[in-house]
Design brief:
Elements lengths: L2 H16 L4 E4 L8 H9 L3 E5 L8 H9 L4 E3 L4 H12 L2
Parallel strand pairs: 1-2, 2-3
Helix pairs in contact: 1-2
Length: 93
């Protein structure tokens, strides 16, 4: 199994098991690693975080994901941790 297949399988499994409770995160990168599985999370009603390509060293993957899918959160690298923490905090309230 190639590495990109492993992350797609992980995200697809999370989407299938967790449905709308699944969360996908795509950070800087190249290639198609995780793109299919990320789409499965979105299709299941899960939450999507993508690093804003403007803040990426390698823009290819985040740009492709932002073009393909309706992303809930397009966030800069400096704001990503805070955005995820805020999202998680909102789930416990």
């Amino acid at each position: 199994m190639r590495p990109e297949e492993a992350i797609d399988r992980l995200m697809t499994t999370a989407a299938g098991q967790m449905k709308q409770q699944a969360t996908g995160i795509i950070l800087t990168g190249t290639g198609r690693d995780g793109i299919k599985g990320f789409g499965e999370i979105i299709a299941a009603g899960g939450t999507a975080f993508v690093q804003d390509p403007k803040s990426c060293l390698f823009k290819e993957t985040p740009m492709l994901v932002a073009d393909l899918y309706d992303v809930d959160h397009l966030v800069s690298d400096k704001q990503m941790a805070g955005a995820i923490n805020s999202f998680l905090s909102s789930l416990t309230q």
